[in-house]
Design goal:
This protein has 1 helix and 10 strands, in the order βββββββαβββ.
Length: about 170
């Protein structure tokens, strides 16, 4: 899942610190942020119904993010990659022969017992609700809503990344 966010010399609405550089209110900042997510996992569809299923699984998401800020006070850049383990629940129901309604939630939270040992915190949540209309056996059209949130806290670094919104896509099966 590649996501790109870009702004061109947008004035800062709330002061923040990025890479040790303070960005004050009103400062024009050009921002480019790229997030890619590759997920690998296993899902077991434990309950089957005549028109759908419900399942659970485990997976690992490899998240890569790079952010570039350009302003009159300088340029700052950061690139991070992290494997994020997650659990998931998913389901599908066929409203008609060609229309599938799908839902999936993936999540992970660092337990409190580990937080103290690693002196950090983190969580990941991804909710995806979509419908797939199968035009043919091998081609489909999707429309859905997705919300993804990643949070981490380590030493003096903190990140809180949230995306949500509608999406449209195509499906090709072989």
């Amino acid at each position: 899942l590649p996501i790109t966010y870009e702004t061109d010399a947008f004035p800062v609405a709330r002061a923040f610190i990025f890479n040790g550089q303070r960005y004050n209110v009103g400062l024009p900042v050009t921002t480019v942020a790229n997030l890619t997510q590759d997920t690998f996992g296993y899902e077991w569809d434990m309950f089957y119904f005549p028109r759908g299923f419900f399942g659970a699984g485990v997976n690992v998401m490899l998240a890569n993010i790079d952010v570039n800020l350009l302003s009159p006070i300088g340029e700052e850049f950061i690139a991070q990659a992290a494997p994020i383990p997650a659990f998931n629940f998913s389901g599908r129901a066929y409203a008609t022969k060609n229309l599938a309604l799908n839902g999936e939630i993936k999540f992970f939270r660092i337990p409190e017992s580990i937080e103290k040992k690693i002196e950090g915190d983190g969580s990941y949540t991804d909710i995806d609700i979509h419908a797939t209309y199968n035009v043919t056996r091998n081609v489909g059209l999707q429309m859905g809503w997705r919300k993804s949130a990643i949070f981490y806290l380590a030493d003096t670094d903190e990140g809180d990344l949230k995306f949500k919104g509608l999406y449209f896509s195509g499906v090709v099966r072989y």
